[in-house]
Amino acid sequence: MRITREFIEKLPKSDLHVHLDGSIRLETLIDLARQQNVELPSYTTEGLRELVFKDKYQNLGEYLAGFGYTTRVLQNAEALERVAYELAEDSAGEGIRYIEIRFAPQLHVHQNLYMEHVLDAVNRGLSGFASRFNRQERIVSGAEPAFRFGIICCAMRMFNAKFSAYYDKFSSVHHFSPQKRVLRLASEELAMAAVKIRDMGLPIVGFDLAGQESGYPAEDHRSAYHYAHRNFLKKTVHAGEAYGPESIFQAITDLYADRIGHGFHLYSTDIIANPAITDKEAYVRKLANFIADRRITLEVCLTSNMQTMPELKRLEDHALKKFLEHNLSISLCTDNRTVSNTSITQEIELAVKHFNVDLKRLKNILIYGFKRSFFPGSYTEKREYVRQIIDYYEFLERQERERQGTFQAE
Fold this sequence. Notes:
CATH topology: TIM Barrel
Mean pLDDT: 95
Strand content: 5-15%
Distance between the termini: 8 Å
Structural class: alpha/beta
CATH architecture: Alpha-Beta Barrel
Strand order of the largest sheet: 1-2-3-4-5-6-7-8
């Protein structure tokens, strides 16, 4: 049976690694910018695609430039709610049934918008869409799985006063503290807020650490992750995106990571920096085995990696090839739908085309995205939901086989 784009679009999918501020509709960005008098380099979608949100970027700095515009228009509850609703709508439109939206609330907090208001606004947008989508007859009857979601709070490996009003005030209050202490305190504050607001009833399902890896090690945020861990908040960490295997090791040992964002450099022995690691091949082999044995899931973002890593000339050279060869647990993700100009369907298509992902492996990858999610419900509820996803997936596969005339198991 051929794996077509149409078939991929129908399949129930998850997106476990997608940034809210990197996934805003360009039409919405333009509209919000006009409402709030935020200056943009262009006020047409074509112009923004040409000048800011491109298919290819020269470097990471150019890739990140777009976030300066998106975060600027997301400084009120109405804008956050609208963008969250639209992101859920766009995701469901291509068959995504479970999404975990991540963002850094501290980029949106100011004197008129507290942390709980920021997170509540995003939740209202997501729950508003989910409520409308899940009222459809085919969902209510149980013929199809419902749309579900969770929110992941991102701490920043590095920030300065220019990042946001919150970080400006935070940096000012701790003016005489070393930078490492300031970064640690901000992460601790976010972890405590995430737990408290989750316990108030919002679907805060995970804690993340994002931002510049090189020079800003994960171990500096150990106390925040310990707090999250003690309070049963699931944990993911951006690691191995712009630094070597040691960064991934820190994430899973010092920060108790359940999942790893990107993990691209897991096998990159050439950039291991610790002089104490003399047998680099053995170190990487043991690290990969540890990850595989504990089913620590790698959140793979193919298009994003191609755009931010100049050394990655061909997609076929992406670490996904080794991830699949060594049977690691992976989930295909968008990272940033707008900034990377991608979708889950496109990411899956790339995997099928460039890494020989067959029907059996595709099913395993997609179902494992649901299994390794930070689902905002009990374990029993999660199992029932995953079972419904599997049943629906198999129904669509049988339907597609009949359409293509391929009745024999492959």
